[in-house]
Design brief:
By secondary structure, the chain is of the alpha/beta class. It contains eight helices and six strands; from the N terminus they run E-H-H-H-H-H-E-H-E-H-E-E-E-H.
């Protein structure tokens, strides 16, 4: 069976990560300040939770890891504002689409792969709840049903670039490492899939390399170049 793996942010959904994060944090702190939540403390909790999820050791889901961090920083139980937070990711979070640059090519790319019989996996680092990831999929002009598997923080125990992340996907799909293609824009996170036996394609429109890694992709090009390449598979 043929699989192709995609990153989301900066790849299928073009964006500058810092712009998106700033917009997202502003929307969330604005909503939660109405309930007396201090913005700085909330941002500290989000950042600490993201750091700990990125370094998760597989002993618990990223969701469980995040809420432990949240409660530690906030000094409150997650249940106090859980309904408000869930509501945010279902609703106000969608306003952050203004910080992204959706491209119709994403729809064309997925369509051409479906037409060729490929199974498409959304290998986005599982730092967000399902509702937030599903909404970002829709911003890109896609649907959750376009993917045979989507990594969200409720189900996954690692994040990129931990090799455990890629192995967990392969285990959940019940497939072996057979040179599957991982497509993404982050040199450290997405190209690290090479160490797990993947071939890699670097999308160059919005390259990220926060970890200052030196992985070389097997292929690279713009989102348009990627589309032309995939048409020839």
């Amino acid at each position: 069976m043929k699989f192709i793996f995609f990153d989301l942010d900066g790849t299928l959904l073009p964006m500058v990560q810092d712009d998106f994060v700033r917009c997202y944090y502003k929307l969330l702190t604005t909503k939660m300040s109405k309930f007396g939540v201090e913005p700085k403390k909330l941002i500290d909790a989000l950042n600490y939770g993201a750091y700990q999820m990125t370094n998760n050791d597989g002993t618990m889901t990223n969701e469980e890891r995040f809420w432990i961090c949240y409660e530690k920083i906030m000094g409150i139980k997650k249940d106090k504002y859980i309904n408000e937070l869930n509501e945010f990711y279902e609703n106000e979070f969608n306003e952050a689409i203004v910080s992204t640059k959706p491209d119709p090519l994403a729809r064309k790319i997925i369509n051409v792969l479906h037409d060729k019989g490929y199974k498409v996996v959304l290998a986005t680092s599982p730092l967000f709840p399902q509702s937030a990831i599903y909404n970002r999929i829709r911003w890109a002009g896609l649907t959750p049903e376009d993917f045979v598997l989507i990594t969200t923080y409720e189900k996954y125990h690692y994040c990129k670039p931990n090799l455990g992340y890629y192995q967990e996907i392969l285990d959940n799909l019940n497939i072996r490492q057979e040179g599957y293609l991982m497509i993404g824009n982050d040199i450290g996170e997405d190209l690290s899939a090479k160490l797990a036996g993947f071939r890699t394609y670097l999308v160059t429109d919005y390259i990220e390399n926060r970890a200052n890694m030196s992985y070389e992709p097997d292929m690279k090009g713009s989102l348009r170049d990627l589309y032309e390449y995939l048409k020839q598979l």
